[in-house]
Amino acid sequence: MSFSLLRWSIALIFFCLLAPPAFAAEPERRTASKPSKKPAAKKRLVRIPGGKRLRHDAAAAFGRMYTEARAEGVRLWVISGHRSWRQQRYLYRLYRKGLGPRAARPGRSNHQRGTAVDVSVGDESTPTYEWLAANACRFGFKRTVSSEPWHWEYRPRATQAPAPGVDCLGQPLEPAEPPAAVAGPDPS
After folding, report:
1. Which of 188, 27, 49, 61 is CA-nearest to residue 119?
2. pTM, whole model, 2 decimals?
3. Which regions in the chain score pLDDT beneath 70?
């Protein structure tokens, strides 16, 4: 064995013996001790009707909105919810090449945060869009991209609830239908 090889072997042994314990620790243990900026409940993704996923609080609000829309005969068909970094990067690359619709740069999309949802609305004259425009603010959702009528974001702190008696557009709510008169005995 040459002197140079012996020196490298001894150096390697000392390095392994004296290396800091952090090198041997599992990454999960090192990162688990760091405090999180957001509560764990907000990071959890939950499935919404249609199979897409949103952040826990956004999914709960969307579920309430979906149920009410459905009761009024409006179907909210979700075409996109949470996106991974890879999905967002793919969509952004398509957009940059002129092969896809507008997409935010990876890391800047609220889809990646699980707070944005794309709903199939057609255009701004469809019943689905009109229902969303009139009611979404009551559930904390608002349209944030003027060129995308389908894109709605969950922003409960920045979304003002409508005044009593009006919808999100400021239009008066339709009065509830009076109960039907009960037929009684004929007075004649």
Report:
1. 49
2. 0.68
3. 1-43, 175-188
